[in-house]
Amino acid sequence: MTVDVMALLPQVRQRILDEGIQPPGWRAGEEEHGRFRAAVAQVLVESNLARHVDGRLPHLARRLSGMMTGVGVVEPLLSEEGVEEIIVRNGFVQVERRGQIEDRGAMADDLHFNRVAYRAADLGQRTMKGDRPFVLVDLPDGSRFTAVIPPLSVRGTAINVRVFSRQALSLADLSDLGAFDKPEEAPDRATPGRLIDEAGQGDLEVLPPVAKLLAQVAAGNLATVLVSGEFGSGKTTLMNAMSLYVPANVQLSVVETFEELKIRHPHPLRVVVPEDRPDFPQMDEILNVVVTRMRPDLLIIGEIVRGEAPRFLDAINLGKKAWSTIHGNDALGALYRLETKALTTGLPHRAIREQIAAGVDLVIHLRQDAWTGDRYVAQAVQVRGLDGDGRYRLKTLYDVGEAGATTLEAVWEELTP
């Protein structure tokens, strides 16, 4: 006989509450989760709710306990191979896997996901209330949880969980996946597996020209790099891959709002500054400390959104190299967006543009194919200062839509001291 798990859930949850049994926190170990599953099984037996399950009691207890902890019924999707995002709209669940959307159906009612959102807020030390009916919080596995609830969301609870890979892909791995090919030339989706060696180099000769340039730039700490693109285009994945080639003798500082980057460096300074947390210093203040007092040779900022821009410019105009991601429609648009974000300093527009032109060396722009979901490098551009009219002088090194771009070997020689 099929058991209606969703019908059982409210009854079991109420019995758990009545008996004062506390669900384990998100960072609880397997021992605590095991005790909670045993308590759920005991409730099922004592309340005669498991009379038709026979030998499936452990499975039912595990499923119900999972629905009362973590992110509820979608918890198993966090560890499912290839899942990049979990999307919930009024109880209907979809996942994005390698750029493609898959329907999973109505996995629970909206009340279940509303409770998940409140639980996420509580365990992340956030508050959802009338004037703030949304939450952004990082999960223990590094996934990014965002929820919007009524009345702000007019069609029930909306949840997005951004799931990040547990292991960084190398530039060779991204090459296997077609990230440095034209979309129509991209190979069938391969299984990444070409690793880099202990020195962080690997066989650079097997890499496509753009990937080889990025590996050499990272290995020599030669350039300030902006990785730009639309949402979901693979910016963080590419910067992860580049970071694997940073040698151990480079003083590396990483500042993020969520711990997304997978850094192999043995001794990095890693700082996470959560958004909208009054008990944490502001991003601008922390970056000022890191840039001026912690002596990084290379500063990696997870993403330039607001207060990161002025400190990014400070770093690259103090002789440091820095990498970051930024949203943009193309390479030039990324530079314009950086200007806009830096205007909060109060400096004249021309002065900000001069700092960007003097400090940023390369812009790598990514796109995602709307039909296939493939992510690929669309542009590689070198910034070569300003012209007489105050416009950026850009040298196109690579453009996926054009032939005959400048040879990257010449750029490598130019960047090398």
Number of strands: 14
CATH class of the largest domain: Alpha Beta
**Strand portion, in percent?**
15-25%
| Number of structural units classed as domains | 3
The CATH homologous superfamily of the largest domain corresponds to P-loop containing nucleotide triphosphate hydrolases
Short note summarizing the structure:
Helices cover 32% and strands 21% of the residues. The protein has 417 residues and is an alpha/beta fold. It folds into three domains: 1-69; 71-163, 2-Layer Sandwich (Beta-Lactamase); 171-415, P-loop containing nucleotide triphosphate hydrolases (Rossmann fold, 3-Layer(aba) Sandwich), CATH 3.40.50.300.
Provide a descriptive summary of the structure in words.
By secondary structure, the chain is of the alpha/beta class. Helices cover 32% and strands 21% of the residues. It is built from twelve helices and 14 strands. The strands form two sheets. It has an eight-stranded mixed β-sheet, with helices on both faces. A six-stranded antiparallel β-sheet has the order 3-2-1-6-5-4, with helices on one face. A hairpin with a 5-residue loop joins strand 4 (134-138) and strand 5 (144-148). Helix 1 (5-18) packs across helix 3 and helix 9 (308-316) crosses helix 10 (331-342). The longest helix is centred in the N-terminal third of the chain and has 17 residues, at 30-46.
Overview features:
single chain; 14 strands; Beta-Lactamase; 417 residues; alpha/beta; Rossmann fold; eight-stranded mixed sheet; 21% strand
